[in-house]
Amino acid sequence: MKIKSWSNYLPGRLAIFDDKSFKNDVKELISNDMIRIINKKYNIPPTLPIPTLLNNGNYLYAHFGYLPSWAKDKKSMNINARSESIFEKVTFRESYKYRRCIIPINGFFEWEIEDKEKTPYFVKDKEQDYLAIAGIWDEYFDNELNMNIVTVALITCDANEKLGKIHHRMPIVLEKKDFKIWLYSESLKETNSLFKVYPSEKLELYKVTQDVNKVLFDEKSCIERVEKIKKGQQTLF
Q: Which candidate, 193, 192, 189, 184, places its Cα nearest to that of 98?
């Protein structure tokens, strides 16, 4: 499948290498842990599996890239949905009503573009080791695999002041006290109220290696801080 440059989206790369704290915080919400021991991933691009807690109690690996059940092919895949219009779009509306999920990540990557050069940053929570991202899901029949797969999209909003310096959008981050509301509430007014911009003071972002640009590069060094980026370093985008 030919896809656009994922650098145009946010977040287009994720990291999830430790879900212990998240699983402890949602243990009463998980009825079927299909992941058990997480597969550490430091640079997840769209189409790869990401851990997801569905509102039916299943904690499983889902396809990073949302496809509604009625999609004819994967060309209509979306990796995120805008919070401002999710309840209006035909593609997302039903899933927003009935199939919401939480996607735990340890952080995500975004790129600062200056003078045609792209500098990657890692974005994480300052106070805890994961971000609980609001998402939607659906089941899609994958002809290549000859089976149904769970597909997910992250929900985004306007970026906070800190992240807004490098990108205008950011994911919706849920507070622990709102997990049950997001997963189970039948009131769209109540779930809409969770579409808040995560405060700048709760986020940390720092420069990381240009190796993040390589889709197949998946090492711990992806999330390690670097002080300087060499000018003229090539990226894949």
A: 184
> Positive or negative CA dihedral for 139, 142, 148, 153?
negative
For 209-221, write each residue's pLDDT tens digit.
999 999 999 999 9
Closest CA to 99 of 194, 189, 29, 183: 183
**Which among 108, 235, 111 is positioned nearest to 166, based on CA atoms?**
111
Domain assignment present for 228: no
DSSP three-state, residue 211:
helix
CATH of the domain at 58: 3.90.1680.10
Domain that holds residue 129: 6-223
User: Under 8 Å CB-to-CB from 177, ≥6 apart: which residues?
Assistant: none
What global pTM score does this model have?
0.91
Per-residue pLDDT, 9: 45
Q: How many structural domains is the chain composed of? A: 1
